[in-house]
Amino acid sequence: MSSDYVTQKGQPFDRAAFESLLRRKVFLWQSFEPYGSVKGLFDYGPPLESLENEIIQIWREHFIRTEKMMALKCSMLTPYEVLKTSGHVDRFADFMCKDPKTGEILRTDHLIADVLEARLRSDKEARGEQVAEKEEDPKLKKKKAKAAKGAVKLDDAVRDEYNHVLAVLDDYTGEGMGELIKKYDIRNPTTGNEVEPPVSVNLMFQTQIGASSNAPAFLRPETAQGQFLSFQKLFEFSDGQLPFASASIGYSFRNELSPRAGLLRVREFLMAEIEHFVDPEGGKKHPKFSAVKDIKLPLLSRTTQSSGSTKPEYVAIGDAVASKLVDNETLGYFLVRIMQFMQKIGIDMNKLRFRQHMENEMAHYASDCWDCELLNSYGWTECVGCADRSAYDLSVHTKATGVPLSARETLKEPYEVEEWVAVLDKKKSGPKFKKAAKDVENALDALAQDMKEKLSLDMEKNGKVELGVESVEGGKVELEKDVVTFEKQKRMVTTREYVPNVIEPSFGIGRILYSLMEHSYWTREADEARSVLSFPPSVAPIKVLVVPLQRDVRFKPLVEQLEAKLDAKHISYRVDQSGVSIGKRYSRNDELGIPFGITVDFESIEDNTFTLRDRDSTKQVRASEHDIVRAISRMIKGKETWEEVAARLPAFETSQE
Amino acid sequence: MSSDYVTQKGQPFDRAAFESLLRRKVFLWQSFEPYGSVKGLFDYGPPLESLENEIIQIWREHFIRTEKMMALKCSMLTPYEVLKTSGHVDRFADFMCKDPKTGEILRTDHLIADVLEARLRSDKEARGEQVAEKEEDPKLKKKKAKAAKGAVKLDDAVRDEYNHVLAVLDDYTGEGMGELIKKYDIRNPTTGNEVEPPVSVNLMFQTQIGASSNAPAFLRPETAQGQFLSFQKLFEFSDGQLPFASASIGYSFRNELSPRAGLLRVREFLMAEIEHFVDPEGGKKHPKFSAVKDIKLPLLSRTTQSSGSTKPEYVAIGDAVASKLVDNETLGYFLVRIMQFMQKIGIDMNKLRFRQHMENEMAHYASDCWDCELLNSYGWTECVGCADRSAYDLSVHTKATGVPLSARETLKEPYEVEEWVAVLDKKKSGPKFKKAAKDVENALDALAQDMKEKLSLDMEKNGKVELGVESVEGGKVELEKDVVTFEKQKRMVTTREYVPNVIEPSFGIGRILYSLMEHSYWTREADEARSVLSFPPSVAPIKVLVVPLQRDVRFKPLVEQLEAKLDAKHISYRVDQSGVSIGKRYSRNDELGIPFGITVDFESIEDNTFTLRDRDSTKQVRASEHDIVRAISRMIKGKETWEEVAARLPAFETSQE
User: How many CB atoms lie within 10 A of CB B131?
Assistant: First the structure.
């Protein structure tokens, strides 16, 4: 799979070289290295930390400020009850199998996939077909190589069965996977031991709040729940107007059983989630949809996927919504805005697609769901999920707490309704039911219209009715006609109360950062290959490299003057005064993705001019300090491109690269 | 205490009104309200979330970019071993007492203080002295009032004893506090029950990483440990040059037993921590110290505190370091930079002081420590700790892991030393000690110079020596002179290896935000008092309020034109088109701290001019759209003040306020 993956220049992607660059330039590393590292936890060093901050600020500008969203920060520590209601306590889980002899824990789907894929590879070998190497941990590979017992050919029918199982593995339940393990004699590949049947393991980190153990809590698995619980406050703050969106940039946690794939599956991760609350009536229109309707998106629909193809079609979002391919305007509007964001931060548009969820992939309450997937060397990776969560979350929390999370709208045209009403004579029901009187009243109010009508008929017939009341002995009471009467009453309806639906674009920032780094990576052909990270100037962690031609005290005042100028403009820079050649210094800072370089040379001393180098083209111009700093500032802000700067400032030829 | 606290205009501070504003304008609330809220956890609504982001960006600019620090992001989930080594497993704890009848958990120091303070108040009452009301939870107050049995006069000696205990309560151990509880018959004030003896409870949230329970972990109590463990990587990345600083903005956790005091004691909080690594030799000088040496700081020294005074002295930092009041230049430089940061974000400089830790307050390894304290209605509050952590952390992690966290410096002038060396004849020691041969060699190498010299004399005298070797039976071996000889050898020393010291400024962002909100709050005298939050333009969550004079379709294109203009300049704004009067709309948006208001009126339709209003003075000017937006942009960036704008643009008189 990853062997087909190429850089932006069409070069085969060398993941080992790429990872070596990330380590060497302290982009990231596994956390707690001196203590042996912890899988699935990463520290970001200065370049990646700054890159993340730049991208978060662009996200804030692109979504929160431009779309007038309400930014929230909610707690990560979350009480048990909240996540019980949301369904995470019951459903946020993976199946695992234990190797009883070693105690090793294996994720069941990974185990099955690993073993069947290994058999299929072995089969291919036995058939003399070419085997594509799967990239994996070298240690594990060695162990497996040891465990392999030469190529084994499979029956054609078995081979087809394995391929089918792998294609639909996501649909299996724990029990189903347990049967597969028995049927195919799947064992722990590193030990050859049989494994125990799959058990469900919740993926939330559990802890407790306070000193007594009766307050179990979790680290949240998504930021969404805190936003839902704040709905009523935000609704009031927005003067009762819908639609509005909340947005939250914060950490979530997932206790992966066996984290793999570097930054793509981690235990602690930054998310940026939007909850757009909208009236379900009226087709979920979006006021700004007409401005984007002609923009084309690469859409990989459910139908295309079912036909076995993975080729997206470029469809104008207006057409996609009109044909109901995309469920509604709001969802469509967000897909466009997501693509524009990706473009802004430097994602390769040839490595982006929107994939619609298959029916069985979606949560039961969702009406449509599209993932923005980015291609990287691990394959197509979900980086933004964009789902219509319907009224599910607000409804379940309202039901669990009794605190309404709903919207109320004053009707422009009030209308009259005629309704069955139960009229209780409280002077009689009070003494009769004592403490339970209030419950009886509530039970009467809660009756649906058809039930009230039915009871009215019963009353007419029998002079009494039976009513279910949970809190009394026996669970029901008898009401005579002197206590309650059922009658039809007319009433003006002036307001409408409803539970808003939620459209949720949810961004995994770490996955986007990782994909962006891969998309930005390429190698420059030279005596020896030189790596470059072509971050756009607006997101590059460091904007400018300042290099004096050589170590010479005469350059010092000029360097200091440049530093002061860049500081005044709040532009981040790095000074490289080391003794190596200019070309080498540029080259090693290209690996940090610094877009611009200023060289201080002997001519600078004479006339205060400097050369300005563009990282991607290695072309240079020469101009005064003022013109150069101004050009850099404009390019960072996106007001000018390098091509425009190169066209207006005099070129500088050099042989130093 | 808080009753003396006044607003920036000298008005008595009304905390109830202030808190009501924060709730009304959705600055913050307790998390999970529909589920009954959780103490010590808060959600930030849009104004506070944005305020925090603005302040974090200023912090990044002021510290990370300006001081060329290395920004890091480290994991929150932290393995047991790391925090065992750092001392947090053993020492990050509070003492608590349990009420055995109700199961209630009480923080021991709070319990003792509450009871003794209540008795002292009662005593004052009995003596007919005036009692200052202590601010506290109204529910608790009610309960206590119920438990109180009328005013009780104490003996003078007892009163003095109580006062003394309260003054030094922080110095008591758990055992000591247990004795106080017995001696003074201290009971749970809400129930009157005796409490169990104090037990130490660790304040870290515990969880586990992965599926097996053999990987206990905690949520980190500070961001510092991750930075220490990254030292070696950063040291290499900075080409082996010291000093350098790392910086991390991230969350830490503290499982408070009974959180109080709103945002000041929370369980989940954002910190910004700097670890400045410096060579301990040469007096911890700072290269930029001379630029700040004349700046005066309000310093409350250890000596002043001992004398019973709380009045800080304004001392130039150069003098403070010269007189050793502040231990070294680096610490002094950071104190100045902290004060400048506070000033930049709008902290009232009359409510800021630097308090030196008393000897018994500091960690045993610290050489000096100053807190930047801000005064708010809860009293003086530690908002930044600035400690010299010496070489402690790097040393203990090196010792625990065997992975060196140290610096190596190539000496400019290598020098020769003569040293005692133990020369082992491995041909003989190998067969003699077998498996333990390596341990014997290590034990010899580890001997200090004076021990080697002593053994050399022993060998001369007895022909054999005894050597402690842990791994062998009996713990020691005998070495004859044919196996080992001790001799003096000359050696050139070309490098110096040392453990850097760490100066750590550690910012509690939540406390700073809370204090800033209190410092910004005041009330405008009018028919009815109107609250204002005077955030500086650079930090205000929303920069501009746009108000059309009244509801009129003719204003719509002008409002849209203004919106487009503000959007293009990335300036955040809020449009208030509600039907109430202009004055009322300004007034209610003053509560959000919006610094500037633009009014669209009938004159605007004619000549495209608008009025610009200043929140703090309520003064207005009138100018073209271009001039107004430009003035706002310049004021936000700090390039111009309102006074300067008001002096150059024509004033506009109105009676609408």
Answer: 12
